[in-house]
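Thread: Newbie trying to understand structure tokens

Hi all, I'm a second-year student working on a class project, and my supervisor (Dr. K.) asked me to get a predicted structure for one chain before our next meeting. I've only ever worked with sequences, so writing a 3D structure as a token string is new to me. If someone could post the tokens and maybe explain what I'm looking at, I'd be very grateful. Here's the chain:
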Amino acid sequence: MASHLVFTVIAQDRPGLVDRLAAAIADAGGNWVESSMARLGGEFAGIVSIDIEQSTIPSLHERFDLLLQEGIAITLRSDLERAEAPKGKAAHLDLVSQDHPGILRQITRVLREMDVSIEHLETAVAPGSMSGESLFKASADLRLPEGLEPSVLGDALQGTAGDMMADINLID
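---
Reply by user tm_fold:
Sure, no problem. This is what the structure looks like when written as tokens:
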């Protein structure tokens, strides 16, 4: 019987990390299904979803233990059922603001209050092209609850954007 496993991985960034992880999964008979990985602050971090036969999970644990000895930390969440396809409309959010504490908190508060899920989020602080001041940039793929129109969410986000002098674009 196949199991669906989800785990996180973090290690000091270096060449070959994904290959080591992919080899451990393949050698244990697992199938790499989905992942999101990035280099952040000199560390390499990711989340991975695999399918694997229950009988080979002990072999996977042994292989992950070997990776831990190499400084590759893995946190495993096992025996999850594959989630249903998300319901509701998809939308994309882009935000740019002069950097200051609390920007993401203000945006996520609006999303939470409107029961919006974040499916993917990327953030960065970068120098502005003209002024050189630090700009906070965020890009997010969202899933709106059934019945919430993107225009309603857009209005709520624009209200917050005005308070923090940010440029927010919501694309449905």
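A couple of things are worth pointing out once you decode it. The chain has two domains: 2-80, 90-171. The mean pLDDT is 91. Feel free to ask follow-ups in this thread.
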